[in-house]
Design a protein that fits this description.
Layout: E1 3-7, H1 15-24, E2 29-35, E3 38-43, H2 48-55, E4 64-68, E5 84-86, E6 91-96, H3 109-124, H4 130-140, E7 145-150, E8 155-158, E9 164-166, E10 169-171, H5 180-202, H6 220-228
Antiparallel strand pairs: 1-4, 1-10, 2-3, 2-4, 5-6, 6-7, 7-8, 9-10
Amino acid sequence: MCLAIYKPKGVEISKAYYRNGYSENRDGCGFAFANHGRIECYKGFNSFHDFWNAIKPLQGKHAMLVHFRFATHGDKSDANVHPIVIHNGKFAVIHNGVIPIRTTGNDSDTVTFARDVLGPCFRRFSWKDATLRYLIETSIGGGNKIVAMNARGDVEIFNEKSGHWHKGAWYSNNGYEGDSRWFKAIGHYASNCYSSWQSSRASKSSYHYAKQTVFDELDEDELNAELAQCTNLGVPDAESSNKLDYDGISHHAKPLVKLHYKKE
């Protein structure tokens, strides 16, 4: 889901990192930097070869915002490719995530947020204002990351801790690692599973078995003694005598009591 990069001046990112970002986010790429008091923005590349040839000679000279897009909202036109330039070319913005904002037409969520929220905020607040940071980070949520650059080359990263620094550059996620990051993730998962398995083996559980109660069978003398106590068997009706014939005679080998039916 997109890869946003901030590269300070003097830091050069490897071609392989850029290629990985491009390969996994094929809906547009671009970069921007401040030069003599204005923002210069390059995007609309038709291939990675074109992108690399454009950025390679400029890397060491400027601090840059670089972005590889994976479209979630809006069409795939160059207008929605980052960096997004706002406020009459005074600011450039890149974003990673999905902003919960209502869009119109073919505009993406980033274009809408940059135009309708960031632009007015940048006009009203100073660049380092804590209120500005609070408002932006609260409105976008922790899962979204935004990097903004002004025409002087000053940069602000909103939700910086949601990304990470690597070899002098800031990345919004691990997309620059390509397939290797999936192997790392699988390795960490397998290692955690093995550790959990070892822990479960180490802690031996003790089991407590309930003592079984054994009942012996009644012999004939005990059965006769029990039956002798049943002196009042009651008078059943015909419908409840489901094991007897309706003549009132039991077909058991030794009937206990002769049954009589109550006449209604």
